[in-house]
């Protein structure tokens, strides 16, 4: 069973998608795969929203826009100052996540939420493929 | 088949779990999933222990404690100076690992070991869900 | 079904392997697993080659060779200045990738390519295990 989840984003940051994932009955494995190279999937704490904004702030500091002096070595700049940094963040963070399914529920820990992490500034329509495979 | 592996940690660093993973007979895929947002799973060289301590040192340098001057922009600090950096490291490093199973053995390379990477300072009891899915 | 893909590398950088991955008919999940601790697998933009060279340049800047003054804390240096940084990059970037299979094709986005990211300077022969698991 493969489905596609569509997430509309409106600027950089984390968008929680935990509640939007359909989980099949029984046991197995659910895999999410983001079909883009400028956003990511990430599992993070779902309690304090400051964790999510701090996380975005860290990555913005680690990978500044390409018009920042420290990034002057970048060549791929014609798609905007947030484009190449978005590709770099997409390499540093997961493109796919695999989560065990136990008795029809994601086996997430108590504080774990699933997020789409948008790295681009302009609004985007993001597709996440969801596939479930059978346990044995 | 889904199981839970429990790992008791006692401070930051890598804890090898390769030998504790039960592998089913036949071929397929084994997925490990850590049910926490302040530790990680990582595959690393299992020969020289300095690789593991150097790895921990690199991440400590890249993501210093939140009371370090370079991290003054962090907001989520009330759970201790090692908490938000632990969440950041948990985003930078894998939450899940999928390893092919060949004839009842993990298809690891000769120098690969599987580790739980603890990011918190205090002792923790960590749970890793292990699920195997059938090859086709 | 498990196979091994062999990739000959000749220095650091990204080597596209998308076209070399055999995809089974039907639906399911395909997982790639690199059997080494000094190279990675990564999904990146396959359009402009500058994205790939910029990506390699970023990681070279983030994790310089161990004879660079900023890396003087590293202990594991006897295998050459590019060895421990290669292990660090191998922790920061994926060892395994799971990609949904839809009707006998990888469900990659339009701009996504699959790459082996070599972190060592000398030529290497790299093995990637490929396993497919059945959808349900």
TrEMBL record, chains A, B, C:
Domain of life of the organism encoding this protein: Bacteria
Q: Which residues form a coiled coil?
A: none
> Which Pfam families does this one have?
YjbQ
Q: Where are the transmembrane segments?
A: none
Classification via SUPFAM superfamilies: YjbQ-like
| Gene3D superfamilies attached to this UniProt entry | YjbQ-like (2.60.120.460)
Q: Which family does it belong to?
A: Belongs to the UPF0047 family.
User: NCBIfam families per the record?
Assistant: TIGR00149_YjbQ
Q: What is this protein called?
A: Secondary thiamine-phosphate synthase enzyme
Species annotation: Wenxinia marina DSM 24838
